Structures are given as C-alpha cells and as structure tokens.
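thought: user wants a sequence for this fold. calling inverse folding tool.
action: design(structure=
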C-alpha cells in the first residue's frame, strides 16, 4: 500500500468547506472549562464527588500555570522531518523531553497547596513528590506516557500527568494545524502521539455533527468518522451502551428512550474488544470529554462486566495493579 503524506502546502490548498480534521486546544480555556465541568459533575450526586472536586482544583491550577508557561517549540527541521515520515509533530515519548515539566509539577503542587485543597493523606503525597529525585520522576513520566501500568504509582500519576498535560497543551495551542501531518495509525494523536481518552459529537459552526476524539495529553481533538471504531478503525461490530435506567422511576417501555437520550454512552467494538466513551453536546452542551470520562466510573464497571476493556486509561485515574504473590 502506498502511504500518502500531505505536506503543509498541500493542506493549505484543501477545500475549506471540508470536514475540519483537527480542533487545537484553546489556550485561554483548555483547563478552566474542564475544571468547571468537573465541579458541575461533582454536584450531580456523583459517587466520587470528592475526587472530582480535587481534580477540578488541579485543573484550575493547570490553567493558572499555563497562563505563564511556554515550552520551547521544536526546531523547524524537526517538524519537517516528522512531516516527511508521517509521525507526530511533537512526540511525547522522546529522549529530549524538556526537564521544565518537573518545574510545572512543583508549580501545580504549590498552587493546590495554596488553594487549601490538601487533606492529610494528600499533603503526605505532595511531600513525597517534592522529595522524589528527578530521575525517578522522569521514570514515572515515561511509564505514564508508554502506558506501562505495572510501573505506575496510581496515587502520584494524576499529578505527574497533569504537569505533562500543561507542557503539551501549551505546545499544541501554539502549533499551526496546517503543519500537523496525517498519520496512518488509527487512534493516535497526530500532535503528540498519545491516545485519546473519549470522544464528543460537537454542535455549532464548522464542527456541527462531527465526532472528535480528544487526546488525553495535549487536548487536541481529531475528527474520526462516527461509523468507525476510534481505536482500531473497524466498521464492524460497533455498538452503543448507556447506563441502565433500572433504578429510574419510569415504565419498562420508556427505558429504551431514556437510554437513547443519554448524553454519554460507551461505544464498543467487537473487532478489538475495546470501548471508548462518547458524549453528545446537543444533549449536554457543557460536555467535556476528559472530565465526563473521569466522572462516569459506573459505565466503566458495566462495560467491564460486559467483557470489554478501555481503549485507553484516563490519566487522572489509574487502577491499582495486582501484586505479585510469588
């Protein structure tokens, strides 16, 4: 099969009325919108409301740090090399990761500490992170980005991931989308090479009615045809699942309608055995893929019981790994 690589000049000449391929993160609101949605979801009798409020404080801290942070942009030669080879333009898994990400981590810790969001156990975690050597922090960052679950510290990972998100969201917000190459690998962000967390069918303007998957690292959104699995690109065996209405005081014949109108569903694929959540902005205008994914653990449990696995984890909630009993 011949690989087609679209150069920046060619991208500029494409039909402007075509489906938007990307939505780059809006620097001024990338994390504040997430924080607001987390607080909104926490107020809806969510079983992990306390955790959602903590993560909202972390997202607010991210927005404040991002306002005064700029990572060095990659050299033009590096961008063009990645374009020629159809690779992510600023790959997160790289030997040249800017060590400033650790400064961002400490700024985030300072911010949430100042905001008074620390319980005694969380204060102990913050102290442990501050005392962790740079090499160990880098090793945790590598494990998170490479999804090496057995090496990840579940308690510290959300804060380390949050620092990495600030760095790559900063980069993505300053990249010209016309420079972003097309990738042949499905389910991978063309900006940073990370995996999407959830997807959203947007309303309004050029994006109306189109489904975008949101990168869990840099928040770039990539258009993916709704008839395809966003993980393996298959068009076979796609199904949608919503929270059961069994505990809702409605008639049996109305439950299908309740599920149909759900603003959040899980899109499963029989071909790869995975699922990824999808939200409909026309049913919940404030839907934010990362936040809504985090707040819907019940749906994760139901999908696990149905035999499906997540296509990608949420970087702010890592499962405990079973210990080796040997």
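)
observation: tool returned 326 residues.
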């Amino acid at each position: 099969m011949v690989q087609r690589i679209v150069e920046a000049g060619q991208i500029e000449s494409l039909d402007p009325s075509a489906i938007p391929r990307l939505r780059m993160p809006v620097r001024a609101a990338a994390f504040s919108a997430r924080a607001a949605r987390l607080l909104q979801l926490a107020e809806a009798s969510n079983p992990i409301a306390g955790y959602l409020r903590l993560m909202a404080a972390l997202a607010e801290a991210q927005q404040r740090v991002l306002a005064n942070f700029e990572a060095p942009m990659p050299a033009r030669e590096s961008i063009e090399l990645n374009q020629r080879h159809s690779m992510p333009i600023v790959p997160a898994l790289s030997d040249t990761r800017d060590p400033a990400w650790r400064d961002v981590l400490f700024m985030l810790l300072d911010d949430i500490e100042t905001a008074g969001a620390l319980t005694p156990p969380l204060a102990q975690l913050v102290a442990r992170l501050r005392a962790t050597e740079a090499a160990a922090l880098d090793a945790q960052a590598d494990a998170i980005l490479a999804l090496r679950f057995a090496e990840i510290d579940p308690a510290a990972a959300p804060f380390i991931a949050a620092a990495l998100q600030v760095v790559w969201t900063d980069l993505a917000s300053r990249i010209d989308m016309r420079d972003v190459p097309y990738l042949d690998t499905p389910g991978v962000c063309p900006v940073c090479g990370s995996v999407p967390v959830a997807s959203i069918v947007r309303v309004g303007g050029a994006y109306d009615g189109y489904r975008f998957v949101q990168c869990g690292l840099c928040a770039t959104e990539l258009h993916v045809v709704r008839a395809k699995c966003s993980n393996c690109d298959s068009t076979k065996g796609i199904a949608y699942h919503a929270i059961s209405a069994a505990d809702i005081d409605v008639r049996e014949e109305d439950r299908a309608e309740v599920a149909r109108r759900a603003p959040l569903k899980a899109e499963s694929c029989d071909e790869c055995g995975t699922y990824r959540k999808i939200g409909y902005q026309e049913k919940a205008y404030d839907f934010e893929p990362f936040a809504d994914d985090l707040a819907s653990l019940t749906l994760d449990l139901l999908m696990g019981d149905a035999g499906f696995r997540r296509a990608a984890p949420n970087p702010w909630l890592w499962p405990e790994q079973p210990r080796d009993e040997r």
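thought: summarizing for user.
answer: Here is the designed sequence. The longest strand covers residues 274-280.
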